[in-house]
Write a structure and sequence with these properties.
The protein is of the alpha+beta class. Helices cover about 40% and strands about 25% of the residues. The radius of gyration is 25 Å and the shape is elongated.
Length: about 300
């Protein structure tokens, strides 16, 4: 049995303890990837002592990976909703006085005969414009998405060209696309911005060295929130950088949260907002050496509600 779980050390310890103490064991545990299962699995594990013929232990596994994933997705949706409400309230509170400050600085500038003092009013005006731009970024593009059939791979390649033009350092970029993915009705500009934010983050994490992997797959019977979709496109953006610090992983989609001194903390919340407008969701998993952001996009952005 230990070979089935790739000789998982935790499992070996649990079996030994039950054999010695005769106590029952029940807990949730994570099984690492194996040659048979490429991804981590979360299981409910129950171990009971028995005395039947030559058997001493009964081990029961229940795969709860998908259940845990749905709970995580719901937490992300709740986080996004709270973050979006906070962003809009904050943005409006900042934006209202900015116009007055800028106007007052312009009027003051006209009254100053000494042109050397214009340097100070120019600073007020430029900083006000910078704050206004930041607020507009917080609020995001207005209006519903203007959807047209779009090839997701073409979007990714377009974004890669932009990022390569911004950073002259050469990265290794691996592509693993599913050629069977059909065109999807998307707002091209909004999706370019979402992918651009995610890929820029990955490139920044690699800091000029490492591998960026772009992967696409179709997933069937996939649940986003309380809607089950018959089929979705899953786009993965993976880097082999240092990973997201553990103490930040529960809050990366909140605004103004960043681990980089030059970062604004707006890229991920903005990308999540743009995906939500398409009925989609961004998830991630991260550890040192492997960070993957999963962009889930329904192929048909209508689904049936689950009443389980």
């Amino acid at each position: 049995m230990l070979r089935l779980v790739d000789d998982e050390p935790e499992m070996r310890d649990i079996l030994s303890r039950v054999m010695v103490t005769g106590d029952h064991y029940a807990n949730e545990m994570t099984l690492s990837p194996t040659e048979v299962h490429a991804h981590e699995r979360i299981v409910d594990c129950r171990v009971s002592p028995i005395a039947t013929n030559d058997a001493a232990i009964l081990v029961e596994f229940t795969d709860v990976t998908r259940r845990s994933q749905i709970s995580r997705e719901n937490a992300l949706l709740i986080q996004h909703g709270a973050g979006r409400q906070m962003i809009r309230q904050l943005a409006h509170e900042i934006k209202n006085p900015l116009g007055g400050i800028r106007g007052a600085a312009q009027l003051l500038e006209r009254q100053l005969d000494d042109r050397s003092l214009h340097e100070y009013t120019d600073v007020v005006i430029s900083e006000t414009d910078r704050l206004a731009s930041l607020v507009n970024t917080l609020l995001g593009p207005g209006g519903p998405p203007n959807k047209r059939p779009v090839n997701v791979h073409e979007l990714l390649e377009y974004v890669v060209k932009i990022v390569e033009a911004e950073d002259e350092r050469s990265l290794t970029i691996c592509r693993d696309y599913d050629p069977g993915l059909p065109d999807i009705d998307l707002d091209r500009d909004q999706m370019i911005q979402a992918f651009l934010n995610l890929i820029r983050n990955a490139v920044a994490a690699l800091d000029g060295q490492g591998t960026l992997t772009l992967r696409s797959r179709a997933a069937t019977n996939f649940t986003i929130g309380d809607i089950r979709h018959r089929v979705i496109a899953s786009v993965e953006i993976e880097d082999d950088g240092p990973g997201i610090p553990p103490d930040m992983q529960d809050s990366v989609f909140y605004p103004l949260i960043t681990s980089r001194p030059e970062g604004t903390g707006l890229g991920l919340p903005a990308a999540q907002e743009l995906l939500s407008r398409h009925g989609g969701l961004i998830e991630f998993e991260s550890r040192p050496g492997r960070t993957v952001f999963y962009v889930r996009i329904p192929l048909q952005q209508q689904g049936r509600y689950i009443h389980d």
